[in-house]
Amino acid sequence: MSLSSVASKTFTSALAGVALAAGTMIVPVAVNAVEAHRAKNITITAHRGASAYAPENTLAAFALGIEQRADWIESDVQATEDGELVLMHDTTLARTTDVEQRFPGRSPWNVRDFTLAEIRTLDAGSWFSREYAGEKVPTLKEMVRLVRPTRSGILMELKSPELYPGIEKQVAAEFDSFPGYVRSAVRAGRLGVQSFDFDSMKTYKRVQPEMPVGLLGTPAYADLDSFTWADQINPHFGSFDAGYVARVHALGMHIHSWTVDDAETMGAVLDRGVDGIITNNPDVLREVIGGRRTFSLDLADAA
Questions:
Q1: pLDDT values of the chain reduced to their tens digit, one per residue, 303 residues
Q2: Would 80 disulfide with which of 63, 84, 166, 219, CB 3.0-4.6 Å?
């Protein structure tokens, strides 16, 4: 019998008499005990970096995510007019840079309509805080250089790949430009790509078969067995239950849920058995996981 099973059964037995007398259920407590023990395996992914505290998709946010000991740093990749790979969530530069002030006549300010040199002139930090004034839109290459020497990994979303034909090959080539990086990072569980565009992920898997690929969204339960070519199913936290997680696992895939920022919801999502959570607050998630692990160990000691 596993340690988690012993802890769960011991705790449940200890409460059984009280629970029966009060007419209450004890199953949720037992489930929490089991999941608390499993929490040590949860992957913490910093969504666009530690973006609750620094401007999203900037080197500052990535560095803070690393400092907060995120297992993965998540970002979004798109291509410039001259074919360079930059990290930006929106297909337009307007929300998170001063592009409207610098280039007022070029609405709607799409990423693909600007060269890298032009994008380099933009301030990607002041919209968030004066503290980050002058922060730049980074390239994929800059992110790899920052993250590679650390214990964190990279989870890269191909954003709107239909706008950038061939971006799968381009991203794969950029990763491959760092000798030995893909092989070592994948082996260590520190590299992956994902997208809402499932066809793009199929293409990526053909281009770079060793790369883990994730499907963003919540495919129907009945259709999950048709997606086993992927490595991850990564749904919104409000779109699935524990049964869905069990099915994903039974098919040999992992499941990482997004975007979960408060401790209570983190706990509820962890109780479903997910492999990881994508959050703007990696420090909060680490505290939640640490608390659950302590609770589990206390139960084991009591047993």
A1: 332 333 333 333 333 333 333 333 333 434 444 444 454 489 999 999 999 999 999 999 999 999 999 999 999 999 999 999 999 999 999 999 999 999 999 999 999 999 999 999 999 999 999 999 999 999 999 999 999 999 999 999 999 999 999 999 999 999 999 999 999 999 999 999 999 999 999 999 999 999 999 999 999 999 999 999 999 999 999 999 999 999 999 999 999 999 999 999 999 999 999 999 999 999 999 999 998 866 555 555 555
A2: 84
User: Is the residue at 9 inside a domain?
Assistant: no
> How many domains is the chain partitioned into structurally?
1
Q: Which residues are catalytically annotated? A: 47, 89
Q: Per the domain annotation, does 204 fall within a domain?
A: yes
The pTM of the full predicted model, rounded to 2 decimals, is 0.86
Axis crossing angle, helix 167-176 with helix 140-147, rounded to the nearest 10: 40
Distance CA 255, CA 257 (A): 7
Q: Residue 78: which CATH number? A: 3.20.20.190
285 part of a folded domain? no
Token pair listed for 271: 């109780």
Quick count: other Cβ atoms within 10 Å of Cβ 153?
21
Contact 249, 255 (CB under 8 A): yes
User: Distances from the Cα of 159 to the Cαs of 76, 201, 249, 300, in angstroms?
Assistant: 6, 11, 26, 44
The answer as to whether 229 is a domain residue is no
Domain that residue 104 falls in: 42-216
227-257: b (≥16 Cβ within 10 Å) or e: beebbbbbbebeebeeebbebbeeeebbbbb
